[in-house]
Amino acid sequence: MIAFPSFVGIAAHPDVLSAVQSALQPHCYNFWLRSSSKLTGQKDKMATPGEQPTRTRIESDSMGQIEVPSNVYWGAQTQRSLLHFNVGRDTMPPELIRAFGILKKACALVNQDLGKLPAEKAKLIVRAADEVIAGKLDDQFPLRIWQTGSGTQTNMNVNEVISNRAIELAGGEMGSKKPIHPNDDVNMSQSSNDTFPAAMHIAAAERVTNALIPAVKTVHDAIAAKAKEFKDVVKIGRTHLQDAVPLTFGQEFGGWASLLERDIKRLEQVLDGLYDLAIGGTAVGTGLNAHPEFAERAAKKIAELTGLPFRSHPNKFAALSAHDEIVFAQGALETLAASFMKISNDIRWLASGPRCGLGELSIPENEPGSSIMPGKVNPTQAEAMTMVCVQVHGAAAAVGFAGSQGNFELNVFKPVMIYNFLHSVTLIADACHGYVEYMIKGIEVDRAKVDWYVNNSLMLVTALAPKVGYDKAAKIAHTAHVERTSLLEAALKLGYLTREEFNDLMKPEKMTRP
Question: E-strand spans in 196-241?
């Protein structure tokens, strides 16, 4: 092993850098090549100590030169990140990469309009950025969530990919930084400190608007349709897991639908904060190295590209150093998860059985439920949704804690915040489909069992209380329970009511309204 004094100053000492690379090559290139081969579909070629890897090119950054697989668009800083942050398997969400593509396209167009970027360069950047937006280059973004907390490596990953792809489009040599430089051109008027939070908001707002809200609406509408279908079916209510007074299935399903309706409104409320963009704040919020009009123009251009009302954040110092809008939005997701947990638990309890549970509802039988008990079927869609809800609650803890950790001019927990937020959105949105198609739409009511529960519930005695008083009504219920008789038999035995009076009062359907 070669000893060297410090990593500090490596850029100024190429000989030290060369020594470091030589010492690390046997350990590092295997990972690099595995990464590139998986991304490009090429067969692994394992390098052995003393063997130089094939098909590489030289890229450089402020730390010096480094070899990069020749079949990728990323450059030196991305390659270093693959080495230094080989942590876990969680890569940046494609929704965030798409948002970065939108951001870089907008910035190039605005810098052109402001006379800072030549039109021919802007055109090349835009063409490459469009491919990022379309997902054509998704395999070029391999970096992990677990990197620098500002997301600098991912910002540079995007800059390098767009730069090299633009160079390729221009017929140049990848890695040459000519005619498009990743920092000077693609990152013009920007810093990782304002691009990453801006991309966070773009990705979050797009996903909430285009994926999550529509998915939740499908569940709401399906449950509301069932509420209408079962609106006149009287059932027994339950509080504290004990028998209570009657209500209708329409009212019960309607309550679930109302929860989701209000959740949708909360999601719509959080969008307003997500529309504020940090772009233009550059390094610490002052806008250093950006045109005075850049922030407003960039936000306006992003709004044009996305069709969403993005705007420049009114205070860039707040936008860089804290991400309360993401925390707030994750809170709405947590509330939504609480609603889905309640609804899912209600459904699987009411459908429990089929013979030894409550059994008021039947749900579709989608797949075998046991490897040992033949014929068993489980409420799997409800279970999948409840596991999603648990995950979202955990993500809320991570996002909330990360959001509280801004120091001075920068919060350095950005990647973990947006990862958890987008993951939560994806899980809920995806789960909604099966929830509707394979459960809600197929729910039926077992009328015979529901009627039996209603007719045998002791809590119907509540209808007698206005006539005989609370104490006598309680005595009727207690007598019926202890002696295992009906309320009618108990009331007649105690002499509190005649048969005619009892029958006149005991109408469960009338107990479902004031």
Answer: 234-239
